[in-house]
Design brief:
This protein is α+β, with helices and mostly antiparallel strands and 189 residues long. 21% of the residues lie in helices and 38% in strands. The N terminus is likely disordered.
Length: 189
């Protein structure tokens, strides 16, 4: 009987020792796997729709301080003057810099646009009443830059318009299931 317990004890020690070695090897394998490069799937870039405009980060760098430190006003507090610039109601000596928002009846945000010196500058976002994104477009001193995107209420991409150096390059349209139905390209000289 003592031999039985001794054999059992030896087997437990042996297997517990092997178990720690297995863990060590597993850790080594995990380290090896973590250092391996995953194959990269590169998205093909359509050069017909590449923008030479500044990216959003560069556009926001025009603000002297973070955008959220500037005032946020409601759309009905904004006035557009004859010079085409937006001003805050009753403050017409200086064009507005900050964010203009609009809301649905339930109080949720329907539109949010950043302005710099009275012109759309940065990002404009419009939402559907259900909170789903409806439109996203970037501006640089009042001009559309890069890609203007619109979605269907179900969240599927509806349209992408492409802009570069204040020129419209073309657009793509999708149906509500996400199937590409139209592609328009504006010939460039």
């Amino acid at each position: 009987m003592k031999l039985y317990y001794l054999s059992f004890f030896c087997l437990v020690c042996f297997f517990s020792g092997c178990d720690s070695e297995v863990i060590d090897e597993t850790e080594n394998i995990n380290q090896f796997i973590d250092t391996e490069q995953e194959p990269r799937i590169e998205e093909e870039v359509d050069n017909r729709f590449v923008s030479n405009d500044r990216i959003l980060k560069e556009i926001f760098s025009d603000y002297e301080k973070p955008l959220n430190s500037f005032p946020q006003i409601w759309q009905d507090e904004a006035v557009v003057q004859k010079n085409g610039r937006l001003y805050r109601e009753n403050i017409t000596d200086e064009p507005f810099t900050g964010t203009v928002v609009e809301s649905f009846d339930d109080g949720s945000i329907s539109l949010e646009t950043s302005y710099y010196r009275g012109l759309p500058h940065g990002q404009q976002v419009r939402n559907f009443p259900n909170g789903q994104r409806a439109l996203e477009v970037n501006f640089d001193q009042g001009s559309i830059v890069g890609t203007k995107s619109r979605w269907w209420p179900n969240g599927v991409l509806r349209e992408e318009g492409y802009w570069s150096e204040q020129k419209f390059l073309g657009r793509r349209l999708w149906d509500q299931t996400g199937r590409l139905i139209k592609e328009e390209i504006v010939p460039q000289n």
